[in-house]
Amino acid sequence: MNNDIKIQFLGGVEEVGRLAMVLETSDMKLLFEYGMNPSKPPEYPMPSPLVDTVLLTHAHLDHSGMIPWLFSRSDQKILTTKITGEIANLLHKDSIKIAKMEGYATPYSNNDIKEAKNSIVSVAPSQTRNLGSDYEVKFHDAGHIPGSLMFELSGDKKILFTGDINVIDTHLLKGTKPVNCDILILEGTYAGRNHPKKREEIEKDLLGKIDEIVKRGGVAVLPAFAVSRSQELIMVLRKAGYDVWFDGMGRKVAKIFLKYPRYLKNPDELKKAMNKISLVHSDHGRKLALKGEVIITSSGMMDGGPVLSYMHKLKNDPKSAVILTGYQVESSNSRRLIDHGQLDFYGVKQKIECEVQYFDFSAHAGHSELIEFAKKCNPEKIVLMHSDNRDVLAEPLKDVAEIFMPKTGEMVEL
Ligand SMILES: [Zn+2]
Ligand SMILES: [Zn+2]
After folding, report:
1. Three-state SS at 405
2. What is the reported pTM?
3. Could you say which architecture CATH assigns to the domain 199-358?
4. CA-CA distance, 202 to 180, in Å (whole number)?
5. Rounded distance from Cα 57 to ligand 1 centre (Å)
6. If I label 278, which of 10, 89, 189, 294 is the partner at 20 to 30 A Cα–Cα?
7. Which CATH fold would you assign to the domain 6-193+363-413?
8. ∠ CA(33), CA(34), CA(40), 5° rounding?
9. Is the pLDDT assigned to residue 53 strictly greater than 60?
């Protein structure tokens, strides 16, 4: 019998984005993730072949964004957590809405989105499931966002697919732990970059900065990703006593989080924190929020969402500040703000007089953490993916395992 394992990345292997990987053995074909880049215009992975099962680690669009497309051809079974299914559904509907608004072709219909949601076979961490072949899959918490998983395949070989991982504890989640395996398929979002400070120190610095802004009479605007980052910030702020306003899709995501308390480190604390803040539901609410002290809103990279309407009002106010806490993609509006002190308001670039600050609240393991994680998994082979800087990860790992760095579309036998 031929026991070879073949993998082929359809996207997202040499970049942090549109991830998709097909894994094939003699008797099964699996698709891991099927993501997209929500860029302008959106970017997609290569078309996926028909597979037996889809495995989805988490809801972020660069992992889940093209899953509904699979249903425009045929039915498909998706293994993921219930919470991931619900958040991904919200993001899919939103991405179609945005594509239509921006005038881009939509790769799938609302009906495909519905079918994708109905085709989820919900699984949970520490459960095991047979894949209808010589392999079974075990699910592990990935520590990245609530409900995020790593997949451990056991059969002839042990294979670990990490998706996105974080190894430190945050207010929302516990960090993930290494899993012993023969073949490690590892993300490298933060390859070459370490998180310079401990989370508690960063939180202290953030609160100190907000204090300064509020004392001088300004508003602190925190553009934050709707999934996970905005809820984490709400928890960081929960004891500080500021007048905090919460706008954008993060409100809906917070409700979903609270529906699935098993995926949160401390659900009661999130509930309490949510009860202390004001939710914005209308234009009138936005006016009130501007009279408050802190506004948490999407989008995290400032390419759309309510944050732009707030910034339009505050752009000439040097007392106010924009506080960024997430990953800033090269072409994003928030990167433009950091580099050039400008924001693009739907095609019109304007100078921003507000102070701009960045605090490193990453949901990804940093460079040294990735290396330590990989070593503790004790693999024979490591496949590096989801990174624009794989060489610097390969270098320190090449003494512990055979390293693979496939290109998009390339078939690799392991
Ligand atoms: Zn992610
Ligand atoms: Zn990712």
Report:
1. coil
2. 0.96
3. 3-Layer(aba) Sandwich (3.40)
4. 32
5. 9
6. 89
7. Metallo-beta-lactamase; Chain A (3.60.15)
8. 130
9. yes
